[in-house]
Structures are given as structure tokens and as C-alpha cells.
Amino acid sequence: MANARKPENNADTAAEAVRKFNHATLPTARSRSGSLHYPGQAYSSVASFKRMAQYLPQSFEQTRGFLTRLHLEGTLTADYGQVADHVSDAKTALAEASRCADMLADALNRAHAALSPIGYSGGIED
């Protein structure tokens, strides 16, 4: 199990992948849409973002459960204030993030469906 990635590294990889997508799709002097050239690329990208958003609530819930367990075990400390207050605030924010991720996944599902029938009729890029 020594080769297993730490969870925070996986989350960082996901964030970095989104940053790379943003960078790759910036308009440039050569292309008004960066490296996006066809509607199918948008369709596939939105599908992947939708899938990621669908996974987020479980990630947030498992993080909440982890914090709850450590707090109940009495193994947490805080640099300032009360540990219980910080844990409560974090758990509340993670629950809110989970609801937002559900809404994001729903919106991306609608965008994915709307992109489904769209095709491209322009010239083919090399």
C-alpha cells in the first residue's frame, strides 16, 4: 500500500487538471477558442466536468465524517478559538459545498444534453 496516493494529492491533481483545461482553452492570436475546435470537444469536456461534480458530494461527506470522528476521539486541537467551533463551521461549509456540487452537476447535465445534438459545419482544422 506504500504506492497509494494520498487523498490530498488526488484532489490537487483534479484542481491542476481544471487549471490546465482553462489554460488550454484560452483564446489566442491563432485560435479564438484555444485548443477547442469542435462542439464534440465541448460535449466531452462538459461530460467530464459533470462526472467530477457528481463525485464531489461523496468526497465532502467523507471529509465531514473524518473530521467528526477525529473530533469525537478528542484528537484535534486549534491554533486559536474552540476546536468544536472550527469543526462545526467546516462541517457546515462542506454540507453547503455538497449541495452546490449537486446543483453544479444538474446544470452540467443540462448543458451536456443541450450540446448533444450540436454538430460542426465549418472547415476542418489540421
What does this structure look like?
Helices cover 68% and strands 0% of the residues. With 126 residues, the chain is mainly α. The protein is built from three helices and no strands. The protein is elongated. The relative contact order is 0.11.
Brief sketch in words of this structure:
The chain is mostly helical. It has helices at residues 7-24, 39-73, 83-115.
Please outline the helices and strands.
Blueprint: H1 7-24, H2 39-73, H3 83-115
Helix pairs in contact: 2-3
Task: Please estimate the helix content.
Answer: 55-70%
- Shape call: elongated
Distance between termini? 44 Å
Strand content: under 5%
Uncertain stretches: none
In this structure, how is the largest beta sheet organized? none
Q: What is the count of helical runs?
A: 3
Radius of gyration: 20 Å
Structural class: mainly alpha
Overall pLDDT confidence = 94
Total DSSP E strands: 0
Summarize the helix and strand pattern as letters. Answer: HHH
